[in-house]
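Translate sequence into structure tokens.
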Amino acid sequence: MNPLNHVAIIMDGNGRWGLKFKNSRNAGHREGLNTVEKIIKSSIKQKIKHLTLYAFSTENWKRPKKEIKYLFNLLENFLINKIEDLHRKNIKLKVIGVKNFSPKLNNLLKKSERKTEKNNILQINLALNYGSKNELINAFKSLQKKRISINEKNLSKHLLTKNIPDPDILIRTGNTKRLSNFLLWQLAYTEIFFEKKLWPDFNEKDYIKIIKKFKNIKRNFGKI
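Result follows.
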């Protein structure tokens, strides 16, 4: 059976769920947080060490300002109300992306990272204002500036995910089959699962089903 250390998730479908059931995209984002908590709990049960959640991409700034504001308010409230609980559960929070949000949110993110930095049951990598193309360009620029040889090993050390193993599994909910500028380098040999359900409808049973499938996949990594 394949070992499973890192699951990455594109949490797609919150807005569509909200419009379908509550006539509000924001209601879907709020409901999606409940799914996040369920998947965190299940990841700990499955002894998964890394969970990377695509929360806000560099392209998401194109959304309506009211929706963006609501999303960040949700995140602020989550950090204020849940970080102590995450800390007690020995969960580490790490942000991958550029922290150029409001002073309040930037401060909350930094405090949360500092508070949980020594925890080791599960590391949640929160992809916020993240875009893989920018990440790769910045990594190449950094290597060039430092006059370091460009190779796979050195490039990996200059990515936002340095010291984080590449994902074993990528799950994308919402019945959309694309990567949307997410971890393009890191997903080279990741097993990808596209899920029809919208993120708020995704549950622990769905998650375990995917994990079981992954563990029985024959992974060749280019070999026979």
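Note: The chain has one domain: 6-215.
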